Amino acid sequence: MSRAWFASALISLACLTGFSADAAGRRLVHPADRAEERIIAMYGDLPGCDDPAVLGSITSSFGSREAKFWGPLETLSYDRIGQLGYRPWGDDTIPRRFCTARVLLNNGLFHRVDYSVRENLGLFARGWNVNWCVAGLDRERSYAPDCKMARP
Q1: pLDDT in tens, 92-145
Q2: Dihedral, CA of residue 103, residue 105, residue 109 and residue 113, to nearest 10
Q3: CB atoms closer than 10 angstroms to residue 63
Q4: Is 99 helix (H, G, I), strand (E, B) or coil?
Q5: Residue 38 is inside which H or E element, if any?
Q6: Alpha-carbon distances, residue 152 vs 46, 84, 142 (angstroms)
Q7: Residues contacting residue 54 through CB under 8 Å, at least 6 positions apart
Q8: Whole-model pTM?
């Protein structure tokens, strides 16, 4: 076989399997592979970082975890809320909105909280849920180092 034939076969295979890329280096997504076209469609309609339901979810789960395992810490308020990214890995992945904020705890200290709002990862793959990490209080080191793994 000639080398030219072999090279063209590899290029064709890469195009067929979705390993091709556009000029910016991103992987191209076939329209049928987009999140909106799946059996359980994902449209990316997520609440914002400062939505009271999102912050309430963090407050509730943080409070129950602290009361059950670690001690008397509770969240009092949030400020400096900002978005870090929205669907940073492309249209063919589960829609996520990555956020960061500063939380005031009842011990008088501020901590950074990194969180993501994720679509169709709630109960029975419906709705949205929140994944979060409070810097300095990741005692299980689930998102080590310093909640970096909770960010995009």
Answers
A1: 788 999 999 999 999 999 999 999 999 877 666 678 899 999 999 999 899 999
A2: -30
A3: 13
A4: strand
A5: none
A6: 16, 8, 15
A7: 47, 48, 99, 115, 117, 130
A8: 0.73
Going from the C-alpha of 87 to that of each of 11, 60, 94, the distances in angstroms are 28, 25, 8
How far apart (Å, rounded) are the C-alpha atoms in residues 45 and 49? 13
Pairing state of beta strands 128-134 and 96-105?
unpaired
Question: Cis link prior to 145 (omega < 30° from 0)?
Answer: yes
Question: Measuring CA to CA, how many Å separate 12 from each of 9, 17, 27, 32, 125?
Answer: 5, 9, 15, 19, 36
Place of tokens 């909105």: 97
